Amino acid sequence: MSTYQPAISKNVFPNKAIARQLEKIFIDPHFADSEILKRFLTFIIEEMLAGRSNQLKEYTIAVNVLDKPVDFNPKENGIVRIHAGRLRRALHHYYSGSGMTDEILVSIPKGNYIPMISNRASESSAVITDDEELSGRQKTDESVVVAVLPFLCLNNHASLQMFTEGLCLHLTEALMHMKKVTVISFQAVKSLCENIHDVREVATILRAEYLISGSIQFHKGDLRANIQMMNSGSCKQVWSKLYEGKLSQANVFDVEDEITGQVCNELQVVPQFNPKPEPVAMRMAAG
């Protein structure tokens, strides 16, 4: 079976020239503050130049670049694909700006992780980008992009942690049905947040305009859920509500439904969502 090899122009550059090109790229603001992007690009370039292009798989990158354990399963964790999409966009921004006259072009064709090194003089194609890789979403000009961050569970109980994650999943699904709202997959968000703790960087990678976060507290049957939404660009909180109620094993799904319904109805009146408010009975106290 033949192995795919990157398309390289006839005017092949020496390794030192490619190394100097990487140094130029890494000065760019899209790379300067991201060790992950620099490590990712350096690794795949070095592997390609060493003749190991056929080993550039999700698993190899996860273990060698992202420090994942040897039992990492790419089918259950899309973190490599997330960072690959991020790297493609960063390269696109670089060559559209400070690198627009560079002789050496570096790109990563969609569908694999093998880099392509080419000569600008002999290449007419643009650097390939993958703006929709994160979630398979298609954003319309009128919609706002929202991501639900993993809620903080303030109690160390496995059952409450399961409830917290279930609430995030249910809320993400419910937001998909709101008009003019595009929602990032919660599993993609959760996987990214395991590695990156700066919410502004998370928002930048996901291209999310608004982030919904929250905290869950439980004491002797009483549940308190504090949920907020912030503008990812300004970090200003634009909405917040506090839900309080009873939680037991018998009403877990009912409480998830109730909180989710009330949050979605509350967001209907947030100006950024171009509201068409509907009168609904609310039992949420102001946060």
Description:
This protein is an alpha/beta fold. It has two domains: 15-122, no CATH class; 144-286, TolB, N-terminal domain (Rossmann fold). 37% of the residues lie in helices and 17% in strands. The chain has helices spanning 15-27, 29-32, 35-49, 58-64, 79-96, 158-175, 186-193, 199-206, 252-267, and strands spanning 104-107, 116-119, 144-148, 152-153, 181-183, 210-219, 222-231, 237-246, 285-286. The longest helix has 18 residues, at 79-96. Mean pLDDT is 81; it is low at 1-11, 124-138 and 275-287.
Name the descriptors:
seven-stranded mixed sheet; 287 residues; 9 helices; two-stranded antiparallel sheet; 2 domains; Rossmann fold; disordered C terminus
Task: Give the structure's gist in a few sentences.
By secondary structure, the chain is an alpha/beta fold.
List the helices and strands and how they pair.
Elements: H1 15-27, H2 29-32, H3 35-49, H4 58-64, H5 79-96, E1 104-107, E2 116-119, E3 144-148, E4 152-153, H6 158-175, E5 181-183, H7 186-193, H8 199-206, E6 210-219, E7 222-231, E8 237-246, H9 252-267, E9 285-286
Parallel strand pairs: 3-5, 3-6, 4-6
Antiparallel strand pairs: 1-2, 6-7, 7-8, 8-9
Helix pairs in contact: 3-5, 6-9
Q: Helix/strand/pairing class, anyone?
A: alpha/beta
Shape label: elongated
Number of domains: 2
- Radius of gyration from the CA trace? 22 Å
CATH superfamily of the largest domain: TolB, N-terminal domain
Question: What's the overall average pLDDT, rounded?
Answer: 81
Largest beta-sheet details: 7 strands, mixed
Into which percentage range does the β-strand content fall? 15-25%
The residue ranges in which pLDDT falls below 50 over 5 or more consecutive positions are 1-11, 124-138, 275-287
Q: What's the CATH architecture of the largest domain? A: 3-Layer(aba) Sandwich
Order of helices and strands: HHHHHEEEEHEHHEEEHE
CATH class of the largest domain: Alpha Beta
Helical content class: 25-40%
CATH topology of the largest domain: Rossmann fold
Give me the count of strands: 9
Number of helical regions: 9
How far apart the termini lie comes to 61 Å
